[in-house]
Prior knowledge:
Rna Polymerase Sigma Factor, Chain: A, Nuclear Transport Factor 2, Chain: A, DNA-directed RNA polymerase activity
Amino acid sequence: MSTRTTDEQVFRELADTYRHELHLHCYRILGSFTDAEDAVQETLLAAWRGLDGFEGCSSLRTWLCRIATNRCLNAQRDAGRRRPPEPVPPFDPPEPSLRGEMTWLQPYPDELLERVADSEPGPEARYGTREAIELAFITGLQLLPPRQAAALVLRDVLCFPADEVASMLGTTETAIKGILQRARASLDKHRDGAAHRPSPQERELTRRFADAFTAADLDGVLSLLTDDAWLAMPPAPHEYHGLAAIAGFLRVTMAIPVERFTVTPTRANNQPAFRCRHGETSAGLMVLTLDGDRIRAITRFLHQK
């Protein structure tokens, strides 16, 4: 067996150790499960091609995160990758409250989080493991300038020292402090702290929602929402904010004759979720954001299974 083949086998074994962490890292920055997969593949290919230049001045994890971060920043400059085509609804939807721009957002299945090694945050983590994957956090990251989002994830979630973050992003430690200050201030505006660990109360609330939603019980669904609840449907840009707007949209969709609508409980982004089906056909993934004993947001990912 050649030395190159042996090196490749060793590299693959080491890379596999970090593959899931890299995927979660890329997902946080990109907000897209699919784009994160592409970024990881590009990262590992670039790392293999540049293996001869890896001098061991940093750990393999740091080196791979540096490559992955820069692949993500490159992907964000390519707007075509981040904007999936807008779906055409089979009905005439009511006028939305607004047309959101974050149509690339995708959910992250909870079962994949279990594959990330050492998922507990370090002592310098500003954001807990659970919070750092919730939809509100991922959404907030997408609203930041890309370098701010990357710096915040590297420093406040993955706990890399400030000097290493500066090196990864090709800037100075002083500049990183300023970038982080602006990123933290912006992100704090979008954090809601609403999600929490699964509990009997959560299971009862989500069961009642599932029963009302599958029965097309509009009043039953609305009774479970907060007054400022909102509904979004990536990759469609339509968003409906407030009970009246949500009621107007659901009233139209619930009146459309379809095959039997069913939901199966699951979890995504550390939040309760449902896999939806019309008869035998997948009808997307619905993720709920809770606020105490009510539901603050419904995010229906139309193309997820």
